[in-house]
Amino acid sequence: MSGKRLFAVRGATTTERNTEQEILSQTKTLLQELIDKNDLSREQDIVSVMFTATKDLTACFPAKAARKLGWTNTPLMCAQEIDVDDSLPKCIRVLIQYYAPEDHSPQAVYLKDARKLRPDLINE
Asked: Which residues are recorded as binding prephenate (predicted)?
């Protein structure tokens, strides 16, 4: 891939409730924000996406939101986040690996209560 290099970017969000609609809505918002901030052209540049969800989110897989965005050929994986004492509840995290121009600077996205996870990366 001439002129491009492999990058990875993180993001996270939280939900109010453990419902399929809420999980899909918040994950879709997170993914759209990551696409916009990193100028991703979806499946052409994305190599793979890893999602984790805290143990209190069981209504659906967050990856389903990516499929609803049209990512039908992108490898997606979901896992349960490690259950650490006093960790942020109802949290969905994502790691996207993608190709971009060599001078690209990945822009992480942390929404809702997940902003507490990495306040150093919040760009307002």
From this structure: 10, 93, 110
